[in-house]
Amino acid sequence: MKKLILALATATVLPAAQALDLARTWINPGFYSFHVERDKNLNNVNTGLGIEVPLSNTYAFTAGVFENSNRATSHYVGLYVMPFEIGPFKAGAVVGGFNGYPNANQGGWFPALIPVIALEGQQLGMNVSFVPTVQDQLHGAISFQLKYRFKP
Q1: Cα-atom radius of gyration of the chain, to the nearest Å?
Q2: Which among 29, 23, 87 is positioned nearest to 53, based on CA atoms?
Q3: Within the chain, where are the H helices?
Q4: DSSP character at residue 116
Q5: What is the C-alpha separation between 72 and 90, in angstroms, rounded?
Q6: pLDDT tens digit string along 30-84?
Q7: Domain locations in the chain?
Q8: CB of 79 closer than 8 Å to CB of 107
Q9: What is the model's pTM?
Q10: What is the CATH architecture assignment of 2-148?
Q11: CA dist 37 to 57, 73, 93, Å?
């Protein structure tokens, strides 16, 4: 598992570092999660800091840190694959890895495939994703991630 995450990070970070264009790079302050299990006293306001670096119209590297639903610190690294586009809307999934969830791999890294719909304007955007419930390891939610990019 660690080798898979390292390979994914290497394959995406190197091109992203070369392609880094601040005028196209999104930053975000974390997520707001509407949890399916409303009775579990989960953290809905998942503050943090993340980046999304477009590599093309279809692919974007993403990485960040946030306070997860269990009130622990999580990190993520991944690749958005958004092959469907209609006007300002894109749809696809993000594939990558997360850590920091106490009941998932004992807080260690684990892979994830999460469906995403994005709305992107010139400077403001929003990613809406569905995180499925995975037994007692992850709590299902619809997550909203506001994102901003600086004016060139």
Answers
A1: 15
A2: 23
A3: 2-19
A4: E
A5: 30
A6: 999 999 887 888 999 999 999 999 999 999 999 999 999 999 999 999 999 999 9
A7: 2-148
A8: no
A9: 0.82
A10: Beta Barrel (2.40)
A11: 35, 20, 23
